[in-house]
Design brief:
It is built from 7 helices and no strands. It has about 160 residues and is an all-alpha fold. The relative contact order is 0.19.
């Protein structure tokens, strides 16, 4: 495989980690566990252009054209940005020899965004406190983001092996 630039590697690591998280979410949904609705993420982001950043309940906000696609695009873009942040913190050498602990810790830390930004902005409250089962939801969010961290590591290892 020809050598990839660091930005290309970062994008692939972010995409790979996000895809692993999606497989995890799909498995959870098959087991009857409620998971993220990316249409609501798209609706939330779609309202930014209208100057609306917070909702009492985003599910009751006006629908946005192509909100499901926008939600998925946002989800993957965030995954790539997180991969870039991890590499910025660890250095590009991490891409050549990835280690698991930084990826898992970083993945766990990324849960701060949904807990303290997205969930309050869509009407679920900080740490999902306005949901019927806030502790369960917050712990599920944390687990999802640790899986994302495992995906960061796994995707980086896969790329490093392919590059060798």
């Amino acid at each position: 495989m020809p050598a990839l630039s660091a930005p290309a590697q970062i994008a692939l690591v972010g995409i790979g980690a996000t895809a692993l998280m999606d497989v995890w979410l799909w498995l959870l949904s098959r087991l009857g566990v409620p998971t993220t609705g990316f249409a609501m993420v798209g609706r939330w982001v779609g309202h930014f252009a209208r100057g609306r950043f917070a909702h009492a309940a985003v599910s009751k906000a006006d629908p946005i054209p192509f909100e499901l696609g926008l939600g998925w695009l946002t989800h993957y873009a965030i995954g790539i940005v997180y991969a870039a942040l991890l590499v910025a913190l660890q250095g590009t050498a991490w891409l050549e020899r990835p280690t698991v602990l930084p990826a898992l810790v970083f993945g766990a830390l990324t849960v701060a965004a949904p807990w303290f930004v997205m969930q309050p902005a869509i009407g679920a409250g900080f740490l999902a406190l306005k949901t019927p089962t806030p502790l369960k939801n917050a712990l599920r969010n944390l687990a999802n983001h640790v899986v994302f961290g495992a995906g960061l590591y796994g995707a980086a290892v896969a790329l490093a092996v392919l590059a060798a």
